[in-house]
């Protein structure tokens, strides 16, 4: 994999470690904006204490319930929505390699593809289900393998045929619920859409799949009362996860957070399912909307490595998972939420997806961009040489990076000048 790393100043941290962290928290001791952070003893040079909990802390997997109310499932759709990016394409072998890496990363659910789209996609999903979906680690972790399906029997049959070989299979079915989609795309009435959704969720359960996710496509532009109604019906039909997509990236964070809160407060039977988010990045707000949804009660987040996906892409796994794990804001803003992501696998996952998809990460991309931990400004270099936490709130080692230049200093026209 050495060829994946184009920046000579950044190389992957050795994976020879006995630690398999599943809960990554950074503690900040400051209590006010004016109080300086206290520094605890830690391998990191930042004022945040890194805590790695053992893999046994990952809650038991139950399709419609999470024993720990603070745990947020990570649903990775790199191999489905991510591959829908214009110009992106992976071979079946590359998809299998990415799925194995996602398992190392510790994602809870891998949406491996859209089996009804083609025979090749069905076979790729089936291969992932058979191999990655049955590799149980020493702590009992094995990812759920999911296939996407429209609300029709042909799609659902193909999805089940592909994922049923996994230890934990899931069918994810969807139908549009916004007025513009129902009128112009589906040409169906609200009553017809509800009946289709209800009957197809029930059909998926009848096949023997006890883990069925339902998405009301374009929920971000759908009528609230209609959403409550259709979601209540699919819960009765057997849905275990309700995914709420901002399909066209239309919502602002406060709007999307309120949408999740309203669904949680007004949908009959909502206490018996997991609420999920799927936020597109058309207005550059996918990560913000995803976090707003989690704060409002969503306990599954749908993301992709490097944020790849339709149009402007999706919420990026590395942004959502790392930001959610920042205990420096967690107690104040995010209510102590955490994920099962092994953060030391983030950079390897990013580089693999970049290589296989052919979609390059811009240098200034948060967390995984080449410049994310580089410092050229003399002012910043001065601070970094004196204390790294002056300009770095995350240690690069915590996401699997090791810099050959310990301070991340890059020489340029704004290079550091040694003071007299």
Automatic annotation (TrEMBL):
Pfam family, one: HMGL-like
Enzyme class (EC, first level): transferase
Superkingdom, natural source: Eukaryota
Residue span(s) of domain Pyruvate carboxyltransferase: 72-347
InterPro entries, alphabetized: 2-IPM_HCS-like, AIPM/Hcit_synth_CS, Aldolase_TIM, LeuA/HCS_post-cat, PYR_CT
EC number: 2.3.3.13
This protein's UniProt keywords: Amino-acid biosynthesis, Branched-chain amino acid biosynthesis, Leucine biosynthesis, Transferase
PANTHER family reported for this sequence: 2-ISOPROPYLMALATE SYNTHASE 1, CHLOROPLASTIC-RELATED (PTHR10277:SF9), HOMOCITRATE SYNTHASE-RELATED (PTHR10277)
Protein's name according to its UniProt entry: 2-isopropylmalate synthase
Organism: Rhododendron griersonianum
